Amino acid sequence: MAFFLASLPVLVILALMIGRRWGASRAGGAGYLTALAVAWGYFGAGPRVLAFAHAKALFLSLDVLLIVWAAFLLYRVADEAGAIEIIGQTLPRLTHDRGMQALLLGWAFASFLQGAGGFGVPVAVIAPLLVGLGFSPLAAVVIPSVGHAWAVSFGSLATSFQALMAATGLPGEVLASPTAFLLGVAGLAVGLMVAHAAEGWAAVRRLWPTVLLMGGAMGGTQYLLATHHLWNIGALGGGLAGLLAGVLLARRQQQRTPAAHQNSAPPVPPATLWIALSGYLALVLITLVVQLVAPVRHFLEGLWVVQWPFPALSTARGFQTPAGLGRKLPVFRHAGLVLFYASAVAYGFYRQAGWYRPGAARRIVSSTARRVMGPSVGITSMVAMAMVMQHAGMTETLAQGLAHAVGQAYPLFAAWVGALGAFMTGSNTNSNVIFAALQQRTANLLGYSAAVILAAQSAGGALASVFAPPKVVVGASTTGMAGREGDVMAALGKYVAALVTLVSLLTVVALAWGVWLGR
Amino acid sequence: MRQGARRKFVVHTVALALMLGSAGAMYWTAQAGQRGLTIGLLGLFALANALILAPPQGV
User: Could you tell me if residue B59 is inside a domain?
Assistant: First the structure.
């Protein structure tokens, strides 16, 4: 009975999103209300326990929301200037090889856009470009959907990874290495799948060395950035490295191609391309300065830090939460504010270059507000639900039940739990918020490394998030496949299942051998 | 902005403001031992979530 009631909020979300096709914000609200009723009515969480749980949720939510808001703002600043379109148009001119075009656009550029924006941006931007290059509508959706999956956790300026830290209280230094490792290996598989989706096994046989080189650059760059406190630009840096490697490889390929077969479209002037990239280069530079230059970091941190103390709490059933400090918010050094600084600098660059039409600032702000409000509500509801469940002892009950049922085979399931959460909620971030605490507790009960299990949670969630119905709908709508989402899901399903299975096996191997990169 | 999209945006904005505001306020009322106010703020947070549950109607 206790296990069923503890799982009820999650079951409600699942039933509403899959059965009734509700959006994440509405389903999150229903899940929260269910959690509140069960916590109060059965698990004995009184007003005092619930109040402090909500207050903790406030800081955890803000920690994520600041990044969500500013990340999309930066994307809109660049998009309004036409910079995204210019970057996207430059890449296809480098090669006539369709498999290579898919790798450049659908993998490297998609990863870059996921790093910079997220929120379905990679598919929405790239799918129409691929259609314009002659890819079928189905391939045009599948290629960037699969191509950006490995970059989700450290994408959107590491929103999902930030949520993983917030939900577990574990520092990035502990979580970054295993997470980046699992995703880096998955990234190689993603590259092969993109080639397969473009031109079948022939492209895989022809391009696997290119995939290894580009994937090594992308995964290696993401790993290095993530494990050196720069996880918020992990996917962005990885995507940029992939673009650079891909461009060099494509040029080398072009030099070997007879002139009659080369692409004859006029190239984008280098100065134009540099201006287009300037916004994201500003982000990378500002992030490096804020994170690596100690006097700047200390100055910004000293300006305003918000962190509230919380007392010890106990439910009527005796479940206890120890006293401690809540989530720390160094306001002016927060990743969200760094993004805002970069947005302001980028806006200045593009305005100076004369790239904005009149009214651009108003359009940027209004479109950002419209786009982020729904996800913000969903995130806040689900974070509150997760905190209520945690403080009422519901998460503990679920963890105990899972550990008892699955036992030592749990590592095989960790990535699938993350995948389920992302499928349910359409978001790696929400999956991490809902399930990370449960995964952490289960790992502790079974004696497994919580960091590796949580890495599997985030990696599984990232890879499966592209399969979520809301994401599929966005992709299908941009290529004229509205109403044929089932075809898209059928095509995506086999790639996603293979990727999550790969991560499951890697998780088991990593735990069994005690392999721990970075330690 | 279409009428339905505008309504959705307003509902989401109000709900978010209610959630964030009540969550912050209940920290202080719980610290001060004000049970009635705390329950009221919890009710406000729940109301914000209930607002989101309203049927789409173009939202």
Answer: no
3-state secondary structure at position B34: coil
Model confidence pLDDT, tens digit, residues A207-255: 999 999 999 999 999 999 999 988 988 998 999 999 999 988 988 877 6
Query: What was the ipTM of the complex prediction?
Result: 0.93
pLDDT digits 0-9 by tens, A396-440: 787 778 777 888 889 999 999 899 888 766 788 878 887 888 899
Domain that holds residue A372: 2-513
The residue type of B51 is L
In whole angstroms, what is the distance from residue A394 CA to residue A444 CA? 16
At A158-183, the pLDDT tens digits run: 889 988 988 888 999 999 999 999 99
**In B, which residues are within 8 Å of A50 by CB distance?**
42
Q: Which residues of A touch B9 (CB under 8 A)?
A: 369-370, 373
Residue A496 and residue A467: Cα distance in Å, rounded? 7
Place of tokens 């600084």: A341
State CA A191 to chain mean position distance.
Answer: 18
- Kindly state whether residue A518 falls inside one of the protein's structural domains: no
Angle at A280 between CA A276 and CA A282, to 5 degrees: 105
Assess A26–B contact: CB distance below 8 Å, yes or no: yes
